[in-house]
Every structure is written in structure tokens, then in C-alpha cells.
Amino acid sequence: MKSSRGDWWYDEAAGPLVRPYAMVRGRTRPLRPELHLVTQVRAMPSPSDPDALSVEHLEIMELCRRPLSVAEVAAYLDVPLVVVKVLLSDLIQRGDVVIRDPSRVPVVPDRNLLQAVLDGVRGI
Amino acid sequence: MVSVESERPGGELLVPTPVKIVIAGGFGTGKTTMVNSVSEIPPLHTEELLTEAGVGVDDVVGLEQKETTTVALDFGRITINPEVVLYLFGTPGQNRFWFMWDELAYGAIGAVILVDTRRLDSSFPSIDFFERRGIPFVIGVNCFEGSHLYEVDEVRRALDVDDAIPVVLCDARERESSKAVLVSLIQHTMDRLDATV
Questions:
Q1: Measured distance CA(A57)–CA(A109) in Å, rounded
Q2: CA angle A74, A79, A81 (to 5 degrees)
Q3: Is the pTM of this model over 0.90?
Q4: Can you tell me the distance from the alpha carbon of B78 to that of B84, in angstroms, rounded to the nearest whole number?
């Protein structure tokens, strides 16, 4: 499913590959290894220096006013995951986006977390 | 939209804990249907670009010289509470995208492996994958209209899975039925956790 808000950067002539990589100025290696599919990202209330940010960065800041996963950001912007990871890494580096402190994410889920998920699924 | 408290006491921005469940199975077993039936948002779609060789998912330097391929991922979301969000990811249909499965399985609390009794063998690779990684899973027998209804024990024998692994009959189109499969998986994961402590 295509996101309607991602229209501005789909460029038929350039093809699906060229635009995304131009957007990240050829940088292709995500800087933040802790950015996984479901890592939660959230924007600070306002960017530290909006003039230094690209349109794409600002779009992410807008989306992430509420916490979202990396995969959701990629889906709403309609760009490949690898591109979103690079853009998010920029924003994290600048302090404009926070992610859940990896040290607080349990590697093995604890019982309380599983119980919460169980109750939540039963309740939907 | 579920409202989210914006701050923890002390002014720190609240960032929820994500929890992930993988919905796996062979082509056409109803993975996306199951995600659709329980997700609180219309299922989302994203893509990852990979080189054919699959060397280093993030390594796209020299992309123009290599054959690239797009792996499509469909996923849904269930907000458990302001601090916990559950994501459901369907595995890519084609088995050649195994390297993407590692990213999907990373940190997952478990997997639902959907089977179609008319094509049981299409689910064997998924069962192998999760068995080898020690990730808890349950078998969801998606009862397609017109497919012969098998007994749970017959399916269990045919798939050769351990007695401790729940095998649940379901209709992936039905929310309540899909919920029951997820509940069975989460309980199974909790049982496994209890057994190891």
C-alpha cells in the first residue's frame, strides 16, 4: 500500500533507486546499528536547528511527534528501510530524535512484559 | 488513534518498548490475512533493498553494478498500552529471502507458523528456521474453505513437531480466531520462559 503523503518523492523518471540514494547523499551504511525494524523512535518537541535539516528530515520529525517504529516511518514515507535508517541516524546524532535506550530493552522478554502483551491481545 | 502519554515523570520523553511476533509459513498460507485481521491500523508495507548475493543487508555500495532485489514486508500494529507496542510481521513469501528472516526474527517473542493442510510441506522450512534458532512458535492450521478438516493430532504427526508445541486450528480471516492463535503463542512463550528459570 502506498502512502499518500509520500507522493512528493516518487520520481518515475529517475527510477525507484536513484532518488532515495541521492537523498542520503550516497551514504548507504546506517550509522546506528541499534536501529532495527521495531526500534521505537520519537522526535524532540522541536528540531535544534531546522535550517540544517532536509525536507526528508523534517518530514520524519513531523511523523515522529508520537513514538513510531523504524518500519512504520519507512512505510509512511514510502522509502526503503535502509534510507530511513540513514536519515534517522542523522537525527539521533543531532539529538533531534530519541530512541529507546537499548540498555533498557530486555534481550529475553521478562514475564511481566509477556503478561502485558497477553492481556493486551485478549483485550482487542 | 490510541493516545500516548508524552512524558514520563521527570520530563523524559516516553518511548515504548516494542514487542515483535513473526507470522511465517509457506506461500499462500494466509500470513497477510492474519496480520490484517488483528492489526489496529491498515497493514503497512515497506521494502528493503538487497543485493542478490545478500552480503550485508546494509551494504549497498556499488549498487549500480550489482543485481538488486526488493524484499517486501507487510506488518501490523497492536498498541498494548502507552509503554508497550506489539508488531506483527509477515515473512516474505519467497524462501530465497532467508537473510531477511534473521532481521525479522531478531528479538521476536515468538512466531506463528501458518500451514495449509493441502500443502503441508510448504511450511517445513519455516519450522526448521525457528526450531534451529530456539525461538518459540505455534502452528496455526488455517482452515481454508473446501480444505478437508484434519484433526490436530494428524497435523502434528505429519509435521513431526514436538508434543509441547501447540497446534491450533484457525481461520486467519477471523479476528477472534487469529487472536486465539496469538494468545496460544504468548502463553507458550511464557511456559518456555518458566521452564528455563
A1: 32
A2: 55
A3: no
A4: 9
